[in-house]
Structures are given as C-alpha cells and as structure tokens.
C-alpha cells in the first residue's frame, strides 16, 4: 500500500486538536489501511487510520484507541481530473460538510445526516478527515444484492428529511444554493463523463440485442435513442425556478449509504456519505438515482409506489414540523416529476447500474472500463442485471420513454 508521506500521527493530531479546540490531544501508534476496494469509490483514496489518542479530561489523562477516515482526491485518470479540477467536487463536499449539513442537522434537531468532518484542505491535494462511522455501528450493505424493503423505506424517509431541511435552509439562506449549482449531470458534465455515458449506452444496446425477451421494435427504439439520451436526460434536470427544488445528495446509491442494525439484525438507522455531487434542483434526481441503482428487484417490482408514497408523506410531515414556507408537493406531483425524469433513470440504469452490480472480479476504475472507444462488456454479462433491465426496458417502452420525444 502506497501511503502519502504527510499521513502521520502529527497530521492526525493537528486535525483533531483544531476540530475539538483541545491542545491536550496527543496521537501516537497509528495504523493505516485502505477503507474501500476498487469500484467502491472512484474519485478518492480512502484510508482508515487507527491510533492511540491521549487527552486531558477533568484533570485526568485518558488514553484510548480511536480511528478516522482520511479521504484524499486522486486525479491520476482523466475523468477524475476533470471532476476534481473542473467541477471542484471536493470543494463542493468541503462546503457541504463544513457548513450546509451542520445547518440542516440543526434544523432537524434529532437526525444525524452525516459523519463529522474534523479537517478539510481544498488543494495540494484536496483532503477530508472524517468521522469513522464503523465504531458507531454503521456499515455498508451489499451493493450486488440490492436493498430490501426495510432498508429502502429508511432511505427514502431520510432522503425526504434531507430535502426538507435543505429547502428551509435555502429559504433562510438563498446563497447556499451556490454551493451546489453545477452538479455532475447537465451542461457542466465533464467531456470524459459524457463519453463514458455515450459509450456505455451503446454497450447496453449491444447487450440488449441478445436478450430474447425484447421485441424487435424495442431494440430499434434503443438504437435510435442511444446517441441522444445524454442530452435528453440532462435537459429534464435543468433548474426550473417555478418548480419544487431542493438540495439533492446527487449520488444516492448503496455505497453512499451506511446502515446501523439492532440486536436482532433489523436495520434501525441510516446515514449518508460522499457529498461531492450535491445539486440544487428537482428532487426527482435523487429519487430516480436511488430507485434505479439500489433496491432489490423484488422491492422494485412490488413496492416502488409504496416507497414514493413514503417519501412524499415524510417530506410533508417534515416540512410542516420545521416550518417551511414553500407548499408541500402532493403525491401526484412527485409522481409527475418522476415520470418527467424517467429518461434520467433510464440513462443511469443503462450506464451506472451494471457497474454497481458488477462482481469484485469485474470491478475496475472508470477510465479502465473504456477500451479503444468501446465499453468493457463484462459488466453487462450479469444475469441479475439482465433480468432487471429487461423488465425496466419493457416498462419504459410502455410509458413511451424510448420513443425519443
């Protein structure tokens, strides 16, 4: 493991002293290991740093074992370079974690949305030192299996609270919107990501031609749509000031969600991580992204409407409790904006979902998946993905999403 030279006990000690305003803190005996695997976090290197921490408490010196997550930007590949340098995704995350989320959690009072940020550095390189959520009992779910109904219900409720608190914050501090005005999906989308989506779409269509459940007409529609889907998807996400808008997390999928479990193994809490793609706009972005990446196939077949209803009802209740001036959107309105943004869900399911469902044997860095202008097809040779995608393509065809209008 290649460790940064600056990642020392002294660095961690400095970060914690400043965060807690406690000069008595001393850090020693650090142990560093990678916190994620290939395919889990593409724009950062994540280190889990364990250490002995000594501090003064009530005239006594106390020593215990502690740990933090150190998140470091990596721009060794072109897409990472464009996201970090052109879109400033680390700058977005630093602003969100050091300012915006604190205000949102203050609004919600008893809801923890994220881990604590102890230290941030915007350049040379961009760094975040974050609370390690594992000692608090939080862990990631299996990205290949998909989330069951209990997990999904908890997530959509928390997404609703996230959206509602961001709305009140924007009502009171309109300039907050500027922190997340660019987003990843839209006119600011980096060239390499555009290429990645376009080539991924063509790879999905190529794979779909071998799926016998799809009609010849459906395949023809996919072929006609593959070159234009990116622009159609970006267009439906354009900010419309007269519509209902919130701060979206922007990347709500299994690996950016951590869960806590009770004594009987039942899920009891959920928290968000990774705020690099936060975006002010329609809440349909978060909902479409989550629904087309994270629930199990069983949940999507039998409980999709239930989850949308849970989101809307939690949004209504939270907005009422915290005192938002904006009128709460109805269930029919949420259904409408989701329908209007189905093309975005289609794009995500065609290009991101197969990567998210890939086995660890097929997991690669994003740039490495592009080979001479073609997409690495391994991720599409996944029976679970095929079953899920065939069902969704038939539904999108029935809805007219594939007609290219």
UniProtKB/TrEMBL annotation:
Transmembrane segments annotated in the record for this chain: none
Highest taxon listed in the record's lineage: Eukaryota
Matching SMART domains: CHK (SM00587)
SUPFAM superfamilies named in the record: Protein kinase-like (PK-like) (SSF56112)
One Pfam family named in its UniProt record: EcKL
Ranges where the CHK kinase-like domain occurs: 128-321
Coiled coil: none
Protein name per its UniProtKB record: CHK kinase-like domain-containing protein
Native source species: Cotesia congregata
């Amino acid at each position: 493991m290649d460790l940064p030279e600056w990642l020392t006990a002294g660095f961690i000690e400095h970060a914690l002293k400043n965060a807690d305003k406690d000069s008595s803190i001393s850090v020693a005996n650090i142990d560093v290991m990678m916190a994620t695997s290939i395919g889990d976090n593409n724009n950062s290197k994540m280190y889990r740093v364990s250490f002995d921490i000594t501090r003064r408490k009530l005239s006594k010196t106390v020593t215990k074992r502690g740990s933090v997550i150190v998140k470091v930007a990596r721009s060794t590949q072109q897409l990472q370079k464009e996201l970090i340098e052109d879109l400033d995704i680390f700058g977005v995350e630093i602003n969100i974690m050091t300012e915006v989320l604190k205000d949102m959690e203050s609004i919600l009072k008893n809801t923890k949305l994220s881990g604590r940020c102890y230290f941030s550095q915007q350049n040379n390189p961009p760094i975040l030192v974050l609370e390690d959520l594992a000692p608090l009992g939080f862990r990631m779910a299996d990205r290949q299996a998909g989330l069951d109904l209990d997990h999904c219900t908890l997530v959509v409720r928390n997404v609703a609270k996230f959206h509602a608190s961001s709305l009140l914050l924007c009502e009171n501090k309109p300039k907050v919107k500027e922190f997340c005005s660019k987003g990843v999906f839209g006119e600011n989308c980096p060239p390499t990501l555009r290429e990645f989506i376009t080539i991924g779409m063509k790879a999905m269509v190529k794979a779909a031609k071998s799926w016998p459940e799809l009609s010849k007409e459906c395949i023809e529609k996919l072929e006609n749509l593959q070159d234009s889907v990116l622009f159609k998807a970006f267009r439906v996400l354009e900010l419309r000031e007269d519509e209902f808008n919130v701060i979206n997390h922007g990347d709500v999928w299994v690996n950016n969600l951590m869960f806590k479990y009770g004594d009987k193994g039942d899920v009891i809490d959920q928290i968000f991580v990774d705020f690099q793609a936060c975006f002010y706009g329609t809440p349909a972005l978060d909902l479409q992204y989550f629904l087309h990446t994270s629930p199990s196939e069983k949940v999507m077949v039998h409980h999709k409407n239930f989850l949308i209803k849970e989101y809307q009802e939690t949004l209504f209740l939270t907005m009422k409790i915290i005192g938002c001036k904006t009128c709460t959107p109805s269930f029919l309105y949420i259904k409408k904006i989701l329908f209007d943004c189905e093309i975005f869900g289609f794009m995500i399911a065609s290009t991101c979902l197969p990567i998210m469902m890939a086995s660890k044997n097929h997991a690669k860095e994003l740039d490495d998946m592009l080979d001479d202008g073609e997409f690495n097809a391994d991720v599409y040779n996944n029976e679970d993905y095929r079953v899920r995608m065939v069902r969704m393509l038939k539904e999108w065809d029935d809805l007219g999403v594939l007609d290219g209008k």
